[in-house]
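Continuing the series of single-chain predictions for the mutant panel. This is the parent chain; the variants come on the following pages.
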Amino acid sequence: MRRGEGGSSSRSLFGRKSLFVIGGILVVVLLCSFAYVFGTEAEKEITVKKLTHKIKTSSSGQDGKTITIKDEWQVHTTDGDVYKVTDTLFRGRFDSSSLMAQLTEGQTYRIKYYGWRIPFLSEYPNILEAKPLVATKLNPKKKEK
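Parent structure:
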């Protein structure tokens, strides 16, 4: 046996083990994400109190350029709940701006959403659909759909 031959096969084996561990971790993360997105889905009736656009930015380096870290639409309800309206890869939805444009302050909606409020992560449930329910003072022409 030549010098180094045994070492290369053990390094190769170590590399394969690392690949399996990393692959396993990725599979677990994807499965947990999938379970979160689909396993926490619910429906609820809400009345929109306020609509906000939250942008978190940061300056980088000496040039002072500002970069957007987080860009999120939020829906505040009369019950005191807060929801976000963002695109979601697992649902194949990339039209959150259109959904947000349909929402009106003072209007009542039946929403489909997923997720939980996780304060230390600044995480909010994400609205997937919103259907207007009744006419209101701010929106007298909206009828039940």
